[in-house]
Structure formats: structure tokens, C-alpha cells
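Table S2 (text version). Query chain:
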Amino acid sequence: MVPPLCLSECYIFMDSIYFLTKIISSGVVVVPAFFIVHNFILPYTSGLMRKLVITYSIAISWMMAFASGSYGYSGKTWLLAAAFMFYVSDLFVARQVFIKRCFLNSLVGLTLYYVAQLMFATCCF
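Corresponding C-alpha cell output:
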């Protein structure tokens, strides 16, 4: 028979491995998303706006990470797709504001945004 102390240590070890895999898997989502913003948007910003863009890109990248974690828990594919579409719509908004103003940015960005919002709403039920 295995002593109870050994079992509790085993559970703690398994919990820490599970937690570590969740951190690594969220990093797989967050790091590439942040580098997209860093390489394509930040060169066109400066000063306070640069700091704000970095802060917002971290926040929205974590939103994608939480959506991917939620997908792993609930299996709701729509939630993950909605988070990705919301992220891409924000890239089009940033492109419109910082890089080049054109109708395509508004068309694609707003379409993705509204579809993502509808998908978020349907994921709740």
C-alpha cells in the first residue's frame, strides 16, 4: 500500500505539470500574436502611443490565450474562432490608424469584428 503522503505529493506533482502545460500552451498563442504586432504595427508608432499599443497588444494576446484555454476545457470551437477573428479585426483597425487608410481595412476589420461579437454571444448559450 502506498502511504498517503506519497499520494498527495504525486497529486501536487501532477497538478504542477498540468499547470505548466497550460502556461506553455498559452505562450504558444501569446508570443506569436505579440510578435505580429511588434513587427507590423510598432514601427509606425512612437512615444506614448507606442506604449499604449504594446499594452493593448499584450491584453488582446492574453484574450486569445484564455480563449484557447477555454476551448481546451469546453471544446467550444466558436469561442476560439471568435477570439481569433476579433484579434485580426483589431489588426485591421491598427493598420487603418497607423499604416494606411483604405476602405479594405474598414470593410474587413468591421466585418470580422461584428461576426466575432455574434460568435461570442452564441458561445454563451
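Notes on Table S2: The CA atoms of residues 3 and 117 lie 52 Å apart. DSSP finds four helices and no strands in the chain.
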